[in-house]
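Reopening this one. Same input as before:
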Amino acid sequence: MYHFFVKEDQVGAETVSITGPDVNHMKNVLRMGAGEEILISNGVDKDYLCEIVSVSSEEVLAKILSVTEGGTELPARLYLFQGLPKSDKMELIIQKAVELGVYEIIPVETKRTVVKLDKKKEESKLKRWQAVSESAAKQSKRLIIPKVSGVMTFRQALEFAEKELDRTVIPFEHAGNMAETREILKGIEPGMSAGIFIGPEGGFEDSEVELATVHGAKPITLGKRILRTETAGLALLSVLAFALEPSETE
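Same output, byte for byte:
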């Protein structure tokens, strides 16, 4: 079943109005017509199972069949602070992080970041990255489209995490206490917001980890193997998503 997002003001008492670029895609690419069922999310708290009533060049009108609240989102908000990687790795990271339930992704410049984005390049990248997030959100039936924020410096990211989030962790290759790591991760519970800091290729410098601890971040280990930047955040998101996912009886 195809999945689309709308704003709350596009949802009426009995129908939902889809406008914008999705209309052309639905009409001319997917060849959708009256009678087909689709899933529509308001990007906040509700999913609507709908049946298409009419398709025009400007609007797809759909009748609401049923409403579900908060069905696919994790009960904690997970923020991925991703050190800017080389090549197109960021697109893969965003796609998979969205599938795993991330709430927001913040690209971060660190001391070992090779990629440098000027304002024009950053705007172009952010537009592309947000499109990747939206596509992944549709594919994985997310209730929201996770935001990809503007690039922050490492210090800015730490200050944001310290002020806005309940918990912050920073995987580091020299952190070796797995028992302590398990206890720290157990402390991330439903209702909380938590930040995950991942370094770029080459990881974090010791001074950056020291600065992170000053701002309240907890160094953790991801095991004895060294993970690539595009693997580390996804591994940790997987662990947290599995631990936080409510059971069918909850």
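So the earlier flakiness isn't reproducible anymore. For the record, The first strand starts at residue 3 and ends at 5.
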